[in-house]
Amino acid sequence: MSDKTMTAEEAVGRLESGMTLGIGGWGSRRKPMALVRALLRSEITDLTVVSYGGPDVGMLAAAGRIRKLVAAFATLDSIPLEPHYRAAREAGAFELTEVDEAMFMWGLHAAANRLPFLPVRAGIGSDVMRVNPGLRTVTSPYEDGETFVAMPALRLDAAFVHVNRADRLGNGQYLGPDPYFDDLFCEAADTAYVSCERVVDTAELTKEAPPQSLLIKRHVVTGVVEAPNGAHFTSCAPDYDRDEAFQKVYATTPWPEFAARYLGGDEQAYRSAVREGA
Amino acid sequence: MSGVTRAEYCVVACAEAWRDGGEILASPMGLIPSLGARLAKRTFAPDLLLTDGEALLVGLDGTPEGWLPYRQHLTLVTSGRRHVMMGASQIDRYGNQNISCIGDWAQPKRQLLGVRGAPVNTLNNPTSYWVPRHSRRVFVEKVDMVCGVGYDRAAEHPGTARFHRIPCVVSDLGVFDFAGPDRTMRLASLHPGVTVGQVEEATGFDLAVPDEVPYTREPTAEELRLIREVIDPAGARGREVQG
């Protein structure tokens, strides 16, 4: 069986401009930030980003890497509005497909199940239909005859997710309270890159945690990236909480200044800069 | 009862939203609705399910009693066994709600949160709203982006919207329902100390106002004790609603 470990740079090196990229986590929680930072160091652009948006979206939008965003929101959780996302939206910097949280989930489920769409009782009556004129509805073929939104599959060229532990083969484990939709992102993607706090032997995975914490299965994983503190500054429970102080720095520093100070070098340089800033 | 603050009337009014809810999830968004949900569970609605704000269902003392990660939360929404009280950046007379953006959606003047789960919420489980500062900027003639579906739009989709229901809107000035003509917003009660004129002044559309407007009910002595000594001893409620 193949060893899938690689660096964040190697993972990003397999991406191309113009791709559709799904990013796991939720808001400012367990975001694959080390992978996002590596992406920001690359020349890759013109992305369609699919995300339950947090600072991943804010950073990629601020850096001008997003052509189109598929999202239901962008938030930093403890700071409700994502400032860099806001600025980019208010500048009309990218195209937006704004769908409801449940529609988004069913789009991932459809992609993971190789279905063109799944019906969902959401969106109808709201302006989600107005701002997404391409959305179609479907009528139940049964007696009820009800009409639903036919949420199209959100098939991804690539997915980035971050988990607590993984083995070299690509089995990913979450130890926090919520899996979010990370397994679905991987299943909906042609290639998936899983960063983790620590790469461990397969046998280690179930030593102290039950098998149901094994969220991501290796057959849907292309690359495993060991990235300690790789969700920083978002939370990665139980390994660490959100770095609220640093998040505040992120939210209140003008983007060019933040990027120059924290994202000019590699991941090691990022960590040093964060330490110096503290 | 003397000395009851406006914030305490708001807590009681929010709590009332979950009366007779049965064994459903109370999803309060914002501080005062959260206090209200806990007050309801401690008193007249003991069967309510509450979350820790993350992935656990918890009792009043924080004891976990269930697991509710986001994906299961969305299933619970579509099962209808939940009553959410959401915020609203804008709301109109039919209860159409906006939390997405202000201005033209294509290039908004102010980008807000996004539609979040408002579309799925309003078609599947009862959805009430909490507005801590009642103003013409929030209570508008027409919202810029319909996230939560109002009664007029629900009526256009009777099949899909058969579970649509907006029980109430609670603001710092009063409680509102949709018993006005054509299911439009109606002043259901005024918080003591507020006048009809004040509410009309702060509302950007014609509000249905009955001839006799009751006041929001007084908290019982026990409810007041619970709010002040058990549920919010630090008095956070007074920072969300003054007076």
TrEMBL record, chain A:
SMART domains: CoA_trans. InterPro entries: CoA_trans_fam_I, NagB/RpiA_transferase-like. It comes from the Bacteria. Pfam families: CoA_trans. This is CoA-transferase.
